[in-house]
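Help needed: design a sequence for this.
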């Protein structure tokens, strides 16, 4: 099976976007206060999407072993 380039990975793009949003919220970008329930639901959603993308993935990225 031929590996794909890293920029073709949906999992990497999703995790990068999640990280960017988490850092932005940590620096105060957002128009509301984050309550603990919202944070827990966001973490749960990110985890479920990551698991789904992992099962959907069929090709490794270049450099992965």
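Sure. Designed sequence:
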């Amino acid at each position: 099976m031929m590996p794909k380039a890293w920029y073709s990975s949906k999992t990497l793009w999703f995790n990068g976007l999640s990280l960017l949003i988490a850092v932005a919220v940590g620096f105060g970008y957002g128009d509301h206060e984050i309550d603990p329930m919202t944070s827990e639901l966001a973490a749960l959603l990110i985890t479920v999407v990551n698991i789904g993308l992992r099962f959907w993935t069929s090709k490794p990225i270049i450099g992965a072993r």
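The mean pLDDT is 84.
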